[in-house]
């Protein structure tokens, strides 16, 4: 376990940060580091909210065991944290404040990606065998027993998953292929509807009742390059109400929503727009980020924007912290290898 102290004055004055912490990893960020593919060196980094403390490898430090191979994502629920470990085909269940192990879900998963929790069940996207287009599914996990109780067959490459008013919205990035749809699954009856979107949909956020879907577009190496876009889906009617097309060679990759504002990353720049805007912005708020976006994450919270840089993909990456009052970097901190598994604010 490595502990690094950094002198820095916090720019956040939220009252929530003054309460007594519930554990060593409360009131801060958890960075999920994928590690190297097939190397078993995934990890989690803790960064305190005031940015004065960074602790690497917290799962291993607390539990004296490796996290696994290729950590994909993390989901908080009540006092629990669920770390989806893709290549290891498992989900580690820990106390979100102490990171002490509670259980491991290790059966019924195949290339798991992301999850959402509704009541006492978790819904986990699974690619299955990447070479097969017909074995992809959503695993339904009973959180009282930590077992997969059933599966829901879906189209190839289910990626992000969001719940709203009893419906699951799943972006089909395509797995090893290139998808172009969002599935809508009604939890009560299991019915599935498909909404066409643009090529390679990935990140999604709920913004005031609407679902914003970021599509990356087909990359140039496919020989049939298409530009990315953002589509806004009405979650009552499950129809696309608005499309924000981008240039033919524009490939956005990250999306977040905070304080009625949409943030997205594209071509080395970060843009923001009001949730009720009718056109895309033309000027970025942060330009020319020197980052390796092969394994990157972005998060907006407490008047800050956090962005991870994987560097050379083989050594520790960085967390870059921007002050959104003036859109300037205020700190760069060391995190784990390939920090593309997401940036998560650990507050309840």
Structural notes for this entry:
With 348 residues, this protein is mainly β. It has a single domain, classed as Methylamine Dehydrogenase, Chain H (7 Propeller). It contains one helix and 28 strands. The strands form seven sheets. The protein has a five-stranded antiparallel beta sheet with strand order 1-4-3-2-28. A four-stranded antiparallel beta sheet has the order 5-6-7-8. The two termini are 25 Å apart. 45% of the residues are buried.
Overview in brief:
By secondary structure, the chain is mainly β.
Using the coordinates shown, work out and report the CATH topology. Methylamine Dehydrogenase, Chain H
What CATH architecture would you give? 7 Propeller
Question: What is the average of the pLDDT values?
Answer: 93
Rg calculated over all Cα atoms: 19 Å
Q: Give me the number of helical elements.
A: 1
Which structural class do the helices and strands define?
A: mainly beta
SSE string? EEEEHEEEEEEEEEEEEEEEEEEEEEEEE
Give the uncertain stretches in residue-range form.
1-16
Anisotropy-based shape: globular
Major sheet details? 5 strands, antiparallel
Strand order of the largest sheet: 1-4-3-2-28
- The CATH top-level class label: Mainly Beta
Range of helix content: under 10%
What brief labels describe this structure?
Methylamine Dehydrogenase, Chain H, single chain, mainly beta, five-stranded antiparallel sheet
Question: Could you outline the blueprint of secondary structure elements for this entry?
Answer:
Blueprint: E1 2-5, E2 28-33, E3 43-48, E4 53-56, H1 58-63, E5 71-77, E6 80-85, E7 90-95, E8 101-105, E9 112-118, E10 121-126, E11 137-142, E12 147-153, E13 158-164, E14 167-172, E15 181-186, E16 192-196, E17 201-207, E18 210-215, E19 229-234, E20 239-245, E21 254-258, E22 261-266, E23 269-274, E24 298-301, E25 304-309, E26 316-323, E27 328-337, E28 343-346
Antiparallel strand pairs: 1-4, 2-3, 2-28, 3-4, 5-6, 6-7, 7-8, 9-10, 10-11, 11-12, 13-14, 14-15, 15-16, 17-18, 18-19, 19-20, 21-22, 22-23, 24-25, 25-26, 26-27
């Amino acid at each position: 376990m490595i502990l690094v102290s950094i002198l820095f004055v916090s720019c956040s004055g939220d009252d929530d940060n003054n309460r007594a912490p519930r554990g060593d990893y409360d009131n801060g960020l958890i960075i999920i580091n994928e590690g190297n593919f097939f190397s078993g060196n995934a990890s989690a980094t803790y960064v305190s909210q005031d940015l004065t403390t960074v602790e690497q490898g917290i799962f291993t430090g607390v539990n004296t065991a490796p996290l696994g191979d290729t950590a994909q994502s993390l989901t908080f629920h009540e006092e629990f944290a669920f770390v989806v470990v893709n290549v290891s085909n498992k989900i580690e269940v820990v106390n979100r404040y102490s990171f002490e192990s509670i259980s491991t879900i290790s059966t019924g998963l195949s290339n798991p990606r992301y999850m959402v929790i509704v009541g006492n069940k978790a819904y986990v996207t699974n690619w299955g065998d990447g070479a097969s287009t017909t074995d992809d599914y959503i695993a339904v996990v009973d959180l009282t027993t930590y077992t997969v109780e059933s599966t829901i067959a879906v189209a190839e490459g289910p990626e992000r998953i969001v719940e709203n008013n009893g419906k699951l919205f799943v972006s089909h990035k395509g797995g090893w292929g290139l998808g172009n749809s969002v599935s809508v699954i009604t939890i009560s009856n299991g019915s599935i509807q498909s909404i066409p979107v643009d090529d390679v949909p990935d990140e999604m956020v709920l913004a005031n009742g609407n679902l914003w879907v970021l599509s990356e577009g087909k990359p140039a190496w496919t020989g049939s390059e298409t530009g990315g876009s953002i589509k806004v889906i009405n979650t009552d009617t499950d129809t696309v109400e608005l499309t924000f097309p981008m240039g033919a060679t524009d490939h956005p990759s990250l999306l977040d929503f905070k304080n009625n504002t949409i943030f997205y990353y594209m071509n080395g720049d970060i843009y923001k727009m009001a949730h009720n805007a009718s056109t895309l912005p033309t000027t970025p708020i942060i330009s020319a980020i020197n980052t390796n976006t092969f394994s990157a994450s972005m998060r907006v919270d407490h008047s800050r924007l956090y962005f991870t840089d994987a560097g050379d993909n083989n050594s520790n990456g960085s967390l870059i912290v921007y002050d959104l009052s003036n859109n300037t970097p205020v700190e760069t901190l060391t995190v784990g290898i390939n920090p593309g598994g997401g940036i998560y604010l650990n507050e309840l």
